[in-house]
Structure formats: structure tokens, C-alpha cells
Write a structure and sequence with these properties.
heterodimer, A: about 475 residues, alpha/beta, Amidase signature (AS) enzymes, about 40% helix, B: about 90 residues, mainly alpha, Histone, subunit A, 3 helices, about 5% strand, flat
Amino acid sequence: MEEILTKSLTEIVEGIKNGTYTSTQVTQACIQQIEKTKEYNTLNHTNFEDALRQANEIDERIAQGNTNGLLLGAPIVVKDNMCTYVLPTTCSSKILENFVAPYEATVVSKLRAEGAVILGKANMDEFAMGSSNETSAYGKVLNPCNTSRVPGGSSGGSAACVCAHQCFGALGTDTGGSIRQPASFCGVVGLKPTYGEVSRRGVVAFASSLDQVGPMAKNVADTALLFDAIRGYDAKDSTSSNHKRTPTAGKFLKTLKGLRIGLVKEIFEQPMNDDVRQALEKAISFYKLSGVEFVDVSIPNIAQAIDMYYILSSAEAASNLARFDGIKYGRRAPEAKTVEDIYTLSRSQGFGDEVKRRIMLGNYVLSSGYFDAYYKKATLCQEVLKQQFAKAFEMCDALITPTSPTVAFPFGSKATPLEMYLSDIYTVPVNIFGGPAISFPCGKGENNMPIGLQLIGNYFEEQTLLQLAEFYEREAK
Amino acid sequence: MNIVSKEDVLHIAKLSKLQLTPTEQEAMQQSLNEVLTHIQALENIPTHNTECKNKTFGTLRADVVENSMPQQSILQNAPKQEGGAFAVPKVVE
């Protein structure tokens, strides 16, 4: 079993394809591992009988000679904000307890079409609002690297289950860093694709102009494979981009000569722990020695992205979450006598504190008298920041930053919501800009906790990021 | 800084269809003020020459009539249903 679990996704798919393993064996190994490491609390919903049924179907198809599928037979976990048949979709919120979606998210259908076994639904911060997984109604996820520390958020369950070898890859969503920061905290790889690259149909919306689905895996090659499986145009997502896509998996480089990385001046002026700063400097030296050319660039308002983010994302969240009213689905307060009561009581009982705060903040910045000062100003600032990014990318292929200013912090250590928000200072600008970014491990810091390095790319340049990251993973000592 | 008053909190809660206990109101006021104070930093970014481009939409699909989801699927998560419809308390007396 150990032998199976420590394999990569790429190896396991190859092994299933050539008959070394069956999907049933691999799925059973993952189920045993989930049961053995239950304390991490990574999964909100599982149905092992159904998972084994899926695995058996794939094994039967292989027996008939059909070995198609990028993810043939591999058990994959999806975040609990992606609609699935059979398993509930609850976004770690009480307001959606017992909700089973009547349709499946495009990304989940794509996983199935590529031969994946849908193993379970990953725990997360409630409605993806949080950076530590502490806001989940299903309880916190423990970081498998050190269980007294947070796994990061909001895709903390997805990152932790990859780290704990409970699956061979996972999907997360990233609105302000929710794939990259937990990947960094748990020592795995996470890719936030360009806005419009992956369909969001059937993914419960948090901030629609920023949300994006992406892969999380044990290494860069696996991340590329999973990315290839889920990307693509979707006529049912009006923000989906209809451009030609070529596969990214396996297209790695022997040399990085000719590539340019930009050092953003303002990033180095931001707070960053010493261990993180050292790891960043070491990675920069590595890339320099590997032939990458470095250029200095400036993105003057990168640090204010966090302010734009909390206006835009909260405004959109307040509108998106208005649909949870206790009428058509989700929790309805049993004692409600009037329609007004149904709305107010169901929402007050169903939402947790952080979600309520974002709704309140969103409705405040959208309310009459404040709209121009906050919401409109933020959209104009977003445009300014996008232009600054565009100018930086005229000079380089990627930007390098840490993923987070610290390694995974202990539970309960962020005293105020603002303090928690500021921990996303390096990831949030990417969502405001809309391009892709990858986080991958670049050493260990305080208490032997993993440190993540972030590379940011221009629109639809995921391939370059994967190549740069894979080279580091393969060659850096 | 006190940007949001206690009355503002109550007003926004009402608009948001949320009921907050007195303790929650106080904590909410404090955290909203803290965040909004931080957000004021945006005032320093000059935007008078900037135009807001709304590029949220990619390609819109053709508006083709197709079968919708079966009624039973739509109702499967209804907290209360009656005669093939969502049931709610009487709205008009």
C-alpha cells in the first residue's frame, strides 16, 4: 500500500495503463490512508462504495482494451464548492447542509471523462472565505506537516489531502490565493490558472470576477497533467475563454536560457519573515545560475491590491450569497412564520461569522452614498494595477515572489480579521490582475515547515510557469 | 477611525437580511471599521484619467431553446414543497 501511495499521479496513471495496478487497488489504498489519517479532517463528504464502483467501472473498461484518459483510474478529490452527483456540496456551510446538487460542475465531468475516480469533497473555509480553514462549519483541517499549524485556506482540505497521500491530486478554487497559500503551507504544488481558462459552471460563486478553479498535486508534472484535464472552453460559462489550448504536461525544458524573471521592487518592501526571505533569495540565485536573466520591474500599487480585493470580492460575495434565502434549497429556519423570517433567520443561523462580515462589508460598499467612494474607486484602481502588470510583463516572462510572508502559522494566532486578510498580500494582486500563478515548495523554514515560491505569469502563460517550476523542482538542490 | 456607526451596522444588517446579537453588532462594527480604515489607502491612487473597462464577459453562447432540468430535480432540495411547487408562508393576506 505504501508503495502505491507515495507514487505520483503521473506514475500511477502509467501504472494503471500498463497493468501494474488496477484502479480498484489504488482507490482502496487511498481509502485506507484516509481512514488511517482521519484526524486531519480533510474531507467533508465521502462515499467509498461509490468510489470503488467508479474504480471498478474503469477497470472493466481497461479489461476491454480502452485505456483512454489523462487521469485513468486515479483517485482525485474536489473542493466542497464544486457540484457533484451523489456527494453533497456544502461549501463547509451550515446553510447548505445536506444539499445534493441536481447537476455536476463542468470540471468534475471533465475529471470523470479523463478517467478519474471522484474520491471525496475537501473541507474548506466557509464559502472559500478565509486563509486558515478555521471558518469551516465542519471543523478545522490540520496541517499534516505539523498538526498544531493551519493548513492554509481556503482550499486547506485539498492541500492537506494531497500532502497526506490520501489522493493523487485535488482541485481547489482561488479567489485571492486560496489554491496557492494552502499549497505553500502544506508543501505541495498549486496552480491558479488565468481567469477564463477553466470553467466555473457548477462551482459555487464567491466573487465571480475573481474566482478560478485550479489543480493541486504532489509535483509540477502532476499539476500540469491535472491542469490539462480540466481546462477548456465551456459555452455554459460566459467568462470562459475560447482560445486554442495546447497540452502542458511533459513539455519541460533542458535549459532556462532566454527566459527572463522580473523582480518587483515593491515586493521586497513588504513584510516577510527571515526564513521566507532567505528561501526567496536562494531560489533567485538558483535561477540566475541556471541562465535566467533577471530584470528589475516596478508595480507601484501592488500592495494596495489587498484593499481593492476586499471591496470587490465582498461586494460580489454579498450579491452572490443573496441567493441563500431558505426558499428553494439549503437551510430553512424551522421556527420561521413569515417569508421575512425565513430569509433573516435562515441566513443568521446558516452563515458563520466571517461570511456575515463579508456580506456586511459588501453591502456597505455597494450601498447608496458609498458606491462611488468604494466600489467604483476599486474598479478604477484595478484598471491602474492591470496596466502596471502589463508594463512589467513587457520586460519579463514571469515575476517571482514568496507565496506567503510566513510559513503555516499556529491555529488561533491571527488576532483580528484584518491581520488574517493581510497574510494574503502576495497572492491577492494576481487575482486583481487576472493572470496565472503557481506556488511550489522551495525549502523549509521555521519549525521545519514548508515554504512556497510563487511565479506569476502573463495572461494564458501557464506553460512558462510550469516549465520554470518544474526545472527548479528537478534541478535545485 | 469610526467610519461605520452602530446605526450603520444595524441598517446594513437589515439590508443583508441578517440578525446580529448585541455582542455580534459590536464585534462587527469594530472589524468593519478596521478594514474600512485600511481600505482608505486607495484614495492615494490617482484614477482621474482611468476608464473602467468591463471585460467580464467572454463569448456569449447562442440563445438556443433546449430542455431544462426535470421539475423533480429542481425541487429535490426544497425545504418545503407542495403540489410540484416551492411552499412558502402566505405573503398576501
